[in-house]
Amino acid sequence: xxxxxxxxxxxxxxxxxxxxxPVTRRxxxxxxxxxxxxxxxxxxxxxxxxxxxxxxxALAISSPTSMWVSWVTGDAQIGxxxxxxxxxxxxxxxxYGKKSGKYTNVQRGIxxxxxxLYPFKGLLNYTSGIIHHVKLDGLEPGTKYFYxxxxxxxxxxxxxxxxxxxxxxxxxxxxxxxxxxxxLGLTSNTTTTIDHLTQNNPSMILxxxxxxxxxxxxxxxxxxxPCFSCAFPDAPIRETYQPRWxxxxxxxxxxxxxxxxxxxxGNHEIEPQVAGITFQSYLKRFAVPSExxxxxxxxYYSFDAxxxxxxxxxxxxxxxxxxxxxxxxxxxxxxxxxxxxxxLVAAWHSPWYNSYASHxxxxxxxxxxxxxxxxxxxxxxxFSGHVHAYERMNRxxxxxxxxxxxxxxTVGDGGNIEKVDVDHADDPGKCPSSSDNIPEFGGVCHLNFxxxxxxxxxxxxEQPEWSAFRESxxxxxxxxxxxxxxxxxx
Length: 490
Ligand SMILES: [Fe+2]
Description:
- This protein is 12% helix and 23% strand.
- By secondary structure, the protein is of the alpha+beta class.
- It has one domain (15-52, 171-488): 4-Layer Sandwich (Purple Acid Phosphatase, chain A, domain 2), CATH 3.60.21.10.
- Strands 1-25-21-24-20-19-18-17 form an eight-stranded mixed beta sheet, with no helix packed on it. Strands 5, 6, 11, 12 and 13 form a five-stranded antiparallel beta sheet that branches.
- Residues 183, 210, 266-268, 349, 386 line the site of fe (ii) ion (FE2).
- GO terms for molecular function: acid phosphatase activity; metal ion binding.
């Protein structure tokens, strides 16, 4: 419970001053709602190293004393017949140290490849370059390290990059700034978002799902579509163009090679292929600290960064109270030591609280299954994406204003090809029908409200009281935790 938070000079209001009167900032209808994808030959997407040299370099926090370094070597293939590369042909090494030019340590890791196979007439197959993951351990928390990655046996090392390890878990140390972004894609708007995010100099990125939008394409590439099913109604399977993932990795590298990015999967990462195989690109490309936190799946995990315990939940994997994710979550929450990590932040892709018409009540089943557990353990803030707009909720539990409920924030407005969402469920004529907004995973649990001004109805007639502020725009969020706030936290 928060009692007497200190307010800094900027006078950002605290939740103690809430609940706030709902505010809506509408989209200017004279503006375009989105932009096209960058082409594969755009300088930020094009491969600019030769075969065995590392590219698409990305960091992820493993623990305050360990960091994942991931990269790709070799050439991906696309065609009717593709032959997977042998991951053993290129070593996975990271040379690192606290001084530039003096790499006193070397760590070796693992490498893998994946294929995306569509054995349907007219569709092409893909097999990836070699994806390398190396865990650097024994790091000092909050310390700058320099590194090169690659294979030293044939002098194929990257240029020097640097990162700062996470602060030690403690109520007095926090990441400098955490950038929160979702539903990013690879458009001109994405470029603006990432450039702006980079200028804000974050020390960590929380990526709340829907990353590359490779599944807005046919396997033959070409031009991406803002609506796959509208543009390609006869597709035998929802196709993807996996080279977009490689373009995305290159586009992100200037940022992710120095700032750790913590990802969680969204619906655009499902990417079904032959034999019901899903999530291959997400699972193979990104290292996440699942083993470190006792999770048996890379689709959900947790980690500490300074005095914040982050919980990343999978909305597209079993979330029922009888399942493995729920059991892990309960254990993980029970293990949190509030004296060390007093702040609990959760993130998953699809929001539970959302007053836009898009995805309205889509993940109501997940909310009904898991909300009480998060409330019981006093989760402070929840970040989600999926809806392509911004919305911040008043503290809420079970659709009722509650000073002990989390603050839910939707930031699915990274800039993807599907365009910004502008309609609210409470706008005249915009309340979705019960057949709209069917989730790509899990059941449908749409409900009519049982109390309050919308009692008996599916949609409100005005912005709901639990919605504090909503704005249809593209962008990202900056999340800062300041230790002095803790002085008054009981
Ligand atoms: Fe989504």
